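User: For a reading group we're discussing how well predicted structures match intuition. Take YbjN domain-containing protein. Before you show the prediction, I'll give you the sequence so everyone sees exactly what went in.
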Amino acid sequence: MTVPQTELQRIVASLQQSGLTVEPVEDGALIRSGETRVALFAEAEPQGGVIVRLHLDLELFVEEDSLPDILMGMNLLNQGLDYGALNLDPVETEDEEEDDDAPVTFAVLGRSVLWLQDLGPLELDRLREHLRRFEAEVTEAVERTLHGSRGMSA
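Assistant: Thanks. Here is the predicted 3D structure of YbjN domain-containing protein, as structure tokens, for the group to look at:
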């Protein structure tokens, strides 16, 4: 008797078979493409299908006092993204317990959510294409902004 694979295990196996470097981690998987690492999480949807969440750590950090300008810039960037969105997540530091007045730092992350009808070959191909375009689109938008004449400053 074989043990049925979870949605995540089936997705990881499919991505590995297609040539991607995928490493299972805790409750998800890490997909490496050059310097880029995309975290992938999958769970069965109660009404059917599978929800896949993608997280791209851009290694950009923003101080609390820069938030108004950064939020306006991120809003403009998000309007041009089709396969994901930029979000801010507070970064927890070990010093937080000691100094409640210290400014909060936020990490800039790319995030995307994709619903797959099933884990058949067509839907897994759609996931691979979504993953490729998500990574390329978010990375390109951020690099263009940071290296352009009027970039985000953090």
